[in-house]
Protein backbone atom coordinates (compact mmCIF):
# COMPACT_ATOMS: atom_id res chain seq x y z
CA UNK A 1 0.00 0.00 0.00
CA UNK A 2 1.33 3.43 -0.92
CA UNK A 3 2.22 5.85 1.82
CA UNK A 4 1.26 9.53 1.82
CA UNK A 5 4.88 10.42 0.92
CA UNK A 6 4.84 8.03 -2.06
CA UNK A 7 1.49 9.45 -3.25
CA UNK A 8 2.84 13.01 -3.02
CA UNK A 9 5.97 12.05 -4.99
CA UNK A 10 3.78 10.36 -7.58
CA UNK A 11 1.54 13.46 -7.90
CA UNK A 12 4.62 15.70 -8.26
CA UNK A 13 5.97 13.41 -10.97
CA UNK A 14 2.67 13.55 -12.86
CA UNK A 15 2.58 17.33 -12.51
CA UNK A 16 6.14 17.60 -13.87
CA UNK A 17 5.22 15.34 -16.79
CA UNK A 18 2.12 17.41 -17.50
CA UNK A 19 4.11 20.64 -17.29
CA UNK A 20 6.79 19.23 -19.62
CA UNK A 21 4.12 18.19 -22.12
CA UNK A 22 2.52 21.65 -22.01
CA UNK A 23 5.92 23.32 -22.46
CA UNK A 24 6.73 21.07 -25.41
CA UNK A 25 3.33 21.75 -26.99
CA UNK A 26 3.70 25.51 -26.49
CA UNK A 27 7.18 25.42 -28.04
CA UNK A 28 5.85 23.50 -31.04
CA UNK A 29 3.09 26.06 -31.56
CA UNK A 30 5.39 29.05 -31.17
CA UNK A 31 7.50 30.23 -34.04
CA UNK A 32 11.01 28.98 -34.68
CA UNK A 33 13.90 30.74 -32.99
CA UNK A 34 14.92 34.04 -34.53
CA UNK A 35 11.49 34.95 -35.91
CA UNK A 36 8.81 37.15 -34.37
CA UNK A 37 5.33 35.63 -34.17
CA UNK A 38 4.05 38.52 -36.30
CA UNK A 39 6.44 37.42 -39.08
CA UNK A 40 4.98 33.92 -39.33
CA UNK A 41 1.88 32.29 -40.72
CA UNK A 42 0.76 28.70 -40.19
CA UNK A 43 -0.27 26.56 -43.21
CA UNK A 44 -3.87 26.09 -41.99
CA UNK A 45 -4.31 29.83 -41.51
CA UNK A 46 -2.85 30.69 -44.90
CA UNK A 47 -4.84 27.99 -46.70
CA UNK A 48 -8.02 29.43 -45.15
CA UNK A 49 -6.92 32.90 -46.22
CA UNK A 50 -6.48 31.75 -49.84
CA UNK A 51 -10.20 31.05 -49.99
CA UNK A 52 -11.13 34.62 -49.10
CA UNK A 53 -11.93 37.41 -51.54
CA UNK A 54 -8.82 39.44 -50.70
CA UNK A 55 -6.46 36.51 -51.39
CA UNK A 56 -5.44 38.00 -54.75
CA UNK A 57 -4.02 41.00 -52.88
CA UNK A 58 -1.26 38.80 -51.40
CA UNK A 59 1.99 38.39 -53.30
CA UNK A 60 3.22 34.81 -52.79
CA UNK A 61 6.81 33.88 -53.58
CA UNK A 62 8.21 30.37 -53.69
CA UNK A 63 11.82 30.80 -52.57
CA UNK A 64 12.87 27.15 -52.93
CA UNK A 65 13.97 24.74 -55.59
CA UNK A 66 12.42 24.54 -59.05
CA UNK A 67 11.71 20.83 -58.92
CA UNK A 68 9.41 21.42 -55.94
CA UNK A 69 7.60 24.29 -57.61
CA UNK A 70 7.12 22.35 -60.85
CA UNK A 71 5.71 19.40 -58.94
CA UNK A 72 3.09 21.28 -56.89
CA UNK A 73 2.91 24.79 -55.50
CA UNK A 74 0.51 27.22 -53.86
CA UNK A 75 -1.88 28.68 -56.45
CA UNK A 76 -0.88 32.17 -57.51
CA UNK A 77 2.64 31.84 -56.17
CA UNK A 78 5.57 33.12 -58.19
CA UNK A 79 8.72 31.06 -58.45
CA UNK A 80 11.86 33.06 -57.64
CA UNK A 81 14.26 30.22 -56.91
CA UNK A 82 16.45 29.25 -53.99
CA UNK A 83 17.29 32.35 -52.00
CA UNK A 84 20.39 30.83 -50.49
CA UNK A 85 22.04 31.72 -53.83
CA UNK A 86 22.68 35.18 -55.32
CA UNK A 87 20.58 34.30 -58.40
CA UNK A 88 17.57 33.54 -56.20
CA UNK A 89 17.95 36.79 -54.26
CA UNK A 90 18.24 38.72 -57.52
CA UNK A 91 15.13 37.01 -58.87
CA UNK A 92 13.27 37.89 -55.66
CA UNK A 93 14.36 41.52 -55.96
CA UNK A 94 13.06 41.68 -59.53
CA UNK A 95 9.77 39.99 -58.66
CA UNK A 96 9.13 42.35 -55.74
CA UNK A 97 10.54 45.56 -57.27
CA UNK A 98 7.25 46.96 -58.61
CA UNK A 99 5.22 46.13 -55.50
CA UNK A 100 4.28 48.85 -53.01
CA UNK A 101 6.23 48.63 -49.75
CA UNK A 102 2.93 48.04 -47.91
CA UNK A 103 2.11 44.99 -50.07
CA UNK A 104 1.37 41.84 -48.11
CA UNK A 105 3.94 39.22 -49.11
CA UNK A 106 4.07 35.56 -48.09
CA UNK A 107 7.20 33.53 -48.77
CA UNK A 108 7.53 29.77 -48.58
CA UNK A 109 9.90 26.99 -49.48
CA UNK A 110 9.12 23.52 -48.13
CA UNK A 111 12.32 21.81 -49.25
CA UNK A 112 13.15 20.43 -45.83
CA UNK A 113 12.36 20.88 -42.13
CA UNK A 114 11.94 24.52 -41.17
CA UNK A 115 15.01 24.69 -38.94
CA UNK A 116 17.24 23.42 -41.79
CA UNK A 117 15.82 25.48 -44.66
CA UNK A 118 18.58 27.49 -46.34
CA UNK A 119 16.18 29.71 -48.30
CA UNK A 120 13.67 31.34 -45.96
CA UNK A 121 15.82 33.62 -43.82
CA UNK A 122 17.79 35.12 -46.75
CA UNK A 123 14.54 35.79 -48.64
CA UNK A 124 12.86 37.31 -45.60
CA UNK A 125 15.89 39.46 -44.80
CA UNK A 126 16.11 40.71 -48.39
CA UNK A 127 12.45 41.74 -48.52
CA UNK A 128 12.78 43.55 -45.19
CA UNK A 129 15.95 45.27 -46.40
CA UNK A 130 14.05 46.38 -49.50
CA UNK A 131 11.60 48.14 -47.15
CA UNK A 132 8.62 45.79 -47.27
CA UNK A 133 6.58 46.16 -44.11
CA UNK A 134 4.18 43.23 -44.33
CA UNK A 135 6.24 40.10 -45.02
CA UNK A 136 5.17 36.74 -43.64
CA UNK A 137 7.05 33.45 -43.65
CA UNK A 138 4.89 30.36 -44.11
CA UNK A 139 5.97 27.81 -41.53
CA UNK A 140 6.58 24.49 -43.25
CA UNK A 141 7.77 22.39 -40.31
CA UNK A 142 8.57 19.15 -42.17
CA UNK A 143 8.25 19.73 -45.93
CA UNK A 144 5.69 21.04 -48.41
CA UNK A 145 4.18 17.63 -49.04
CA UNK A 146 3.63 16.75 -45.38
CA UNK A 147 2.60 20.20 -44.18
CA UNK A 148 0.56 21.42 -47.15
CA UNK A 149 -0.29 18.85 -49.83
CA UNK A 150 -1.23 16.00 -47.48
CA UNK A 151 -3.58 18.33 -45.60
CA UNK A 152 -5.53 18.92 -48.80
CA UNK A 153 -4.65 22.61 -49.04
CA UNK A 154 -4.88 24.10 -52.54
CA UNK A 155 -2.11 23.32 -55.03
CA UNK A 156 -1.44 23.61 -58.71
CA UNK A 157 1.22 22.26 -61.06
CA UNK A 158 3.46 24.65 -62.87
CA UNK A 159 6.72 25.71 -64.36
CA UNK A 160 9.65 27.01 -62.39
Q: Can you tell me about this structure?
A:
This protein is globular. Residues 8-31 have low confidence and may be disordered. Helix 4 (86-96) packs across helix 5 (120-129). It has helices spanning 4-29, 43-50, 66-71, 86-96, 120-129, 144-147; strands spanning 40-41, 59-62, 78-79, 104-108, 134-138. Helix 3 links the parallel strand 2 (59-62) and strand 3. The chain is α/β, with parallel strands linked by helices. The chain has six helices and five strands; from the N terminus they run αβαβαβαβαβα. The longest helix is centred in the N-terminal third of the chain and has 26 residues, at 4-29. A five-stranded parallel sheet has the order 1-5-4-2-3.
Helix/strand layout:
Blueprint: H1 4-29, E1 40-41, H2 43-50, E2 59-62, H3 66-71, E3 78-79, H4 86-96, E4 104-108, H5 120-129, E5 134-138, H6 144-147
Parallel strand pairs: 1-5, 2-3, 2-4, 4-5
Uncertain residue ranges = 8-31
Q: Which structural class matches the secondary elements?
A: alpha/beta
Strand content: 5-15%
First-last Cα distance:
69 Å
Helix count from the secondary structure assignment: 6
Helix % is 40-55%
Give the SSE order as H and E letters: HEHEHEHEHEH
**Strand line-up of the largest beta sheet:** 1-5-4-2-3
* Gyration radius, in Å: 20 Å
Largest sheet: 5 strands, parallel
Shape: globular
User: What is the number of strand segments?
Assistant: 5
Mean pLDDT: 83
Amino acid sequence: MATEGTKALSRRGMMRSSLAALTTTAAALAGPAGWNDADLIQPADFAKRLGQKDAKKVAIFHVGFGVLYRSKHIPGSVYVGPCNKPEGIESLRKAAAALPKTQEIVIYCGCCPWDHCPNMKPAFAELKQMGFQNVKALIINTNFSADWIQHGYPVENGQG
